[in-house]
Amino acid sequence: MDDTTNTRYQLASVSKQFTAAAALLLVEEGLLSLDDTVGRWFDGCPQPWQPITLHQLLAHTSGLGHWEDYPMIDLAQPVEPGELLTTFHSVPLKFPPGAGWSYSSPGYVLVAHIVERAADTPYRDFLTHRILDPLGLTGTFVGAGGDRPDLAPGHDAEGQPMPSWELDVVGMGAGDVWSTAGDVLTWLDALESGRLLSEPHRTLMVTERARTGMGPDAGGYGYGVFVGEWDGRRWWHHSGHNAGYKAFVVSIPEAGRRIVVLSNTEATGAETVKSLLT
Description:
By secondary structure, the chain is an alpha+beta fold. The chain has one domain (9-277): DD-peptidase/beta-lactamase superfamily (Beta-lactamase), CATH 3.40.710.10. The protein has 9 helices and 9 strands. The longest helix is centred in the middle third of the chain and has 15 residues, at 105-119.
């Protein structure tokens, strides 16, 4: 880990919070509906995909799989967007839309494409102009790091450098945001306070929309966040893991407590987070 306040880390799947918020901003404006089906926004979808809704993509109840279900995709290699979508189509759904819960990064890639099409704006530009700039998240950006300053390079558990996953297409909407610890704290506060989303969409995002089926005490999933209780208090949280990076963010509103863990090493484990919660 790096303790420099300006250092920027890949947020990995914590990025899904930004994706969900982008979609909900467009729902607020009437450009999207949570009941919109995939077939409205994508031509040539397989028939079993046709009834998948935006709500189901956001809540992980669409039936789409996670990266391990798409072994033909190299997460570190560039690919054309159309080719990536065709690859998604080639893998059968794990269950009919709405019939179960299964965490899916490809589902959030689809959400990012829907945002892009509904807004008629490149996805990263939409996030920059509608979320990052208004909230003053000056250390945060979306997509490949390029030659930007203050980037924490990723490392494996032994401390060796690791190549980054491809974030402009393959990781778009699923794990493409870089940020600083300070910016993430601002982000968590903006979500909880309603500074970004108005009601009822703020509450929709940070309260349960689907049960995860991960155990009776595991809680549920909102839109881009896991939700439940910690020590008798409501909390919402998410972890992230890209090659060379790990992240974990928590908001416990009733306690006024937020926790942000950003790491550029695979060696960071669950014990780090547990120590902060106890």
